[in-house]
Protein 1
Amino acid sequence: MIALPKPLQELFQPPPTPGVLGVFAFLDATLEAIKKLRAAGHADFTVYSPIPRHEIEAALGQAVSPVRAFTLIGGIAGCAIGAWLTLWMSYDWPIVVGGKPVGSIPPYVIIMFEMTILFGALSTILGILLNALFAARRVGTIQYDARFSNDRFGIFVPAGSDTAAKIESLLRESGAEEVRRG
Amino acid sequence: MAEHSPPSRVTYDYVTRTIARTLGAPSRGYFLLLGAAVALLAIGIVTLLYLLRYGLGLAGYSHPVYWAVFITCFVFWVGIAHSGTLISAILFLFRSGWRTAVYRTAEAMTVFAVMTAGLFPLIHIGRQWYFYWLIPYPNERGLWPNFKSPLIWDEFAIGTYFTVSTVFLIMGLIPDIAAVRDLATGWRKKLYAITSLGWTGANEQWRHYTRGYLYLAALATPLVLSVHSVVSWDFAMAIVPGWHATLFAPYFVAGAIYSGVAMVITLLVPIRKLFQLEEIITLHHFENLAKLCLLTGSIVSFSYMTENFVAWFSGNSAERAAFWYRAFGPYWWAGWTMNICNGLLPWLLWSKKVRTNVTALFVISIFVNIGMWFERYVIIVVSLAGEPYATWANAVYNPTWADWGIMAGSFGWFFMWFLLFVKNFPAVSISEVKEVLVPPRRKASKAHV
């Protein structure tokens, strides 16, 4: 772990949340555990996977990411900025060339188009970063295993000492190859 | 996809370890290549210093050819950049599974090619210390901000393309950097810990990431088509015969993707060999790249024919003269190099034997690169030199050592960045290659993804 300055540490590295971590070798075992956890009323657990799998998304019943709103707003803003930039600057320094209007929309559409893409893309990135950051803040510092980026799936369930034993057995029954408390 | 499933020993773990191995200690061959790239770059830098000291007169400019090798190289490198986004964004939207093994290389190539292309307008202006005159906004220094000029469209298009393709590359890299972070030790562990931005593969991360990636691809797709269209308008908006054609935008886009795919093949063949990635980048991938080459190459050949046909059929004497000059004027060799390398050679790719022969593909891809460079040379230099309105001042333009020096430098610059990239970051996507494998299940299932 990298040592961050104090204000950043509070933001990015909150104190660890107690809970149970299950390591799974198989996708279907992971899905089974997700279904059992949801049936038992858990909603705040985290699923790790080396690749995005639509089965996991479906099992979790996640809502569509709000990133799309960022893309849309960024794109519209970019288009508007492109129009404003070209028209304002043209009328700010008006020179008539070839009898054409000072503010000619057709060539400015190209600038508006490029700005739509630029702002749309940058705000998409911003949307991903902010949403992922908020999610991380909500979950806090939780256990992770280096194998999750390679070939293992994982489920972390936040739990106090009273419920931990029950969750441990639930994960084992579903086929976790390793369960640990932290 | 099913019939091309990789062998069962290609598991998630195999993929991670094989690709992470490419980041191991560099071999002598790697250092030789890097040394060659740096030497070429040094030639370019020395040439640039001479140009700065003695002026652009050292290059071969002669009236009326004031757009020459530097602009040719600019268009060449922008063109190279195009297949990266084609493979990473357009094929992503088409759900082509085979792109996963090659797209990272193509995307990195895109970013470095745009970086290379961006140098040329600056070199071409001669007095680099006045480069900010290119940005007279809103109307600084009493300059007129002319948004009706294709050159300013180009600035916006290339600027946007560089930004978007860079963030697209970085986005794709994050889960892979996390994967190598978890295997690395020492200073690399620290580097990857910072650059992976705390990626863990948690469901909340994937949820926003996959959505965002989809939208980025959807934005990059029209962008890639627009960029080379805008580059083509740098020419097509002028009245020079040979430039002033409505065909130019699709013709340039197809040519750009054609040269880009050829460059991807040129880069992948040695990388695959050097890093022993035969199990991951298979003949199936090369064959698909070759098919892309064949498709875009055919569009390019068709455009050549259309151009010549329209020049004849229009009855426009200036247009006819320009195309006659291309084929039989003093630059006949450039015109025929372009026709043979781009128009005829790719016909070999109709044969499956050629498409699945890596050596043959490598050789063809190099000829396509040469042909596409000459295409831009023909369009730019030969059209200007043969301009019928300037017969009183026609001169046969010849590039000088300064032109070649800068061009050599650009290749060095490009390959240097590329080689540094493949040794420090995963040159093949780890997470996306895994996505096309059958996921591990308790009950071995025959169902494919």
Protein 2
Amino acid sequence: MVEAVARVQTEKLTALYGKFTAVKDVTLGFAANQVHALIGPSGCGKSTFLRTINRMHEMSIGGWITGSVLLDGADIYGPDVSVIQVRRQVGMVFQKPTPFPTKSIYDNVAAGLVLEGGRARAELDEVVERSLRRAALWDEVKDRLRTSAIALSGGQQQRLCLARTIAPEPEVILLDEPTASLDPQGTQRIEELMFELKRDFTIVIVTHNMQQAARVSDTTTFFYLGAMIEHGPTRQMFTTPTNEQTEAYITGRFG
Amino acid sequence: MNRRDRRRFKSNAMVALMIVAVVIAVLPLLFILGSLLVHGASSMSLAFFTRVPVPAGETGGGVVHAIVGTLVIVGIASLIGVPVGIGAGIYCAEYPGSRMAVVTRFLSDVMNGTPSIVVGVFAWTLIVAPSHHYSAVAGSAALAMLMIPMVMRTTEELLKLVPNSLREAALALGYARWRTTLSIMLRTALPGIVTGTLLAVARIAGETAPLLFTALGNQYLSFKPNAPMAALPLVVFSYATGPYEEWHRFAWAAALVLIIVVLVLSVAARLATRQRFGAARG
Amino acid sequence: MEMTDAATSLSRRAATVRLLTGGVRGDQLFRVVLTACALSIPVLLIALAVMLTRGASLAIGKFGLGFAATSAWDPVAGQFGAWPMILGTLLTSLLALLIAVPLSLGVAIYLTEFAPDVIRKPVAMVIELLAAIPSVVYGLWGMFVLIPLLQHAVFPLLRSLLGFLPFFRGAIYGPSVLAASIILAIMIMPFIMAVSREVLLAVPGSQREAAMALGATRWEAVRTAIVPYARSGIIGAIILGLGRALGETMAVTMLIGNRHEITASLFAPGYTMAAAIANEFNEAATPMHYAALTYVALLLFVITMLINAGARLLIWRVGRGSQGGGAST
């Protein structure tokens, strides 16, 4: 069996808020071009863990880490590393849709692109259309690209945020409970997108909906009380978990 | 009348009293606006807006020197006060827990409560006394000092209303901190900040006391920032307290112009919040 | 195939490392600029206190704290005592509060608790407009409309009704302590109304509902449940109004008669600290005169600062106490 190359690798990663340890000593690899789900009860540290991968954790009050997070083998917490560049390589979609209210749909999608500057209008148009298509939003908004982004429905806004995140072509996309505030239709559409998106991106998704994890992911990791309890291919995790706690959580005995 | 009826009567009586209070409170406004129109409108002619005053005792002339003066003095004051106020407001919203922010917020309230004449004396001791002459700039400095806490407060409160999730989304996209603050957070709060700023400009445009011993006033039309300059509120004051009937009429007219300027700015301020698409609301 | 994989991952790594080390520098400059702006406030305030003290030093040196207690004000002889104007300031402000507070509270309570929308919105707008009128315009109107009215109708009436009190005796000139107090009352009303409204709106709805559920009439609910809850905030609003009144200059100086004297009669002219400064500063001829006036400004600054600080503390406490209140922590 060929071991897939890990796109993202954490080594002995511990994430803290001041003195409080939220994530303990996690060593974990995420292979390229797959969807990796992180599951666990509330407060188990899965979101905190996710946010260390794009260095958003340190934006929280008192947030810091020990250990390392490697992107293609390069430590993103290295001494010369620019946080901004890390975030351009690792994108994130949040639980609540957050389109920029003063920007149009077009400008929202292009928001990450114009940061680097120097792109011609025609090129921008092309990237915006491509991103919206990949987010399955193009047909719904192609006639009103210049209108306000907040006029869209919740599900549309979330797909807009997805388009915005993928437009600058990051290596990795992190999704923090992306469907938690959407209705079942919106949820389904986002889940469908993942099968296509993983061809071009590596996706790590935090979800407290186990069925969702079972539906969309290639690997699943179970977190509990800040520790990584078990990690493996999704089918195996859900049918024959090796750890008791994993089984208890999956069968709904707690959480 | 049983107990309950008495209580209800009392309740209605109190409400009636309150309505009387409302009427009494509203009356002065109607009275004042009415007086301004009655006494001031008759003097408003084209000449009034385009001529400078004539020697005492003669008729005719106008207040163009004061209109220009107010524009210049308030303009310079805003050039200083608005950016500094917004900058201070951004600081307090970005680093809210820091000692600097706590101190600044508190002292800005103190500044807000400082009588404007005290600020005028300060500007006098700082600028007028050492340079031995009155100047429009000294007046602008005093007005700017009055403006900064107002603009700072508005900016900070409005920035705080912008949801933090927007900041996170921008940062996650790879926006630098300064860019996030300016083009996402500040941009979103902008309509409200514009409103607050225009209201602050309207407030200082009507201030007289700080100008009494800084800009001093001037009978002639002047654009020189380093010399005494006329202003609408100063003109209202000196004409009202002067001996000539003609002057008193001019005072009413100048006051009417001043009120119109203040009201126009206030209305413009409200409009700024109304229409922009996507102002962060709810 | 493994070899190619390793080579690919190495070159990927190098590319990523290169990518990650691009820099962005704007943040430091940004913080510096913002800090400078924020610093301007404490710096200006301290400069104000320092410059005023320096400017007043001549007078502080000669008169000390007794300045506030002596009455003689003689620029020619170099004698300066600020007591009449201090008394005048306190008197006009307190009188103004006496008139303004009941009216303002009545309006504020009515607007927040009882008024239907169709009344509330226009009245709220009227209050805002009143607050926007410049002091000098109030003074103008006061001089030519209010004073004649008071002089010819109201004051004689008061004198005939209440002449047994020393306050309402004596000659009626027009410009007077009472006239100044009335215009002050009109000027601070919108302010007290606005702050009281904010405070009342911050009272949680549960208080109101609880009282109504017990069978209280609307008025009783207000009196027993809402006002007590908002009490310290309302007191704070009143004290803030006091602070405003103390510093008002133009309207007062145009209506008070500008006389350095104290008599019991409210119909007599008087002086306030702000009015004295406004009137005499440009006419001052000697350094001691300037110093005395600057000393008055310094005293005014200190008094208003203390009062405003106290008021803010009270209002802040109400905001902390209520749950969904408008205060931001």
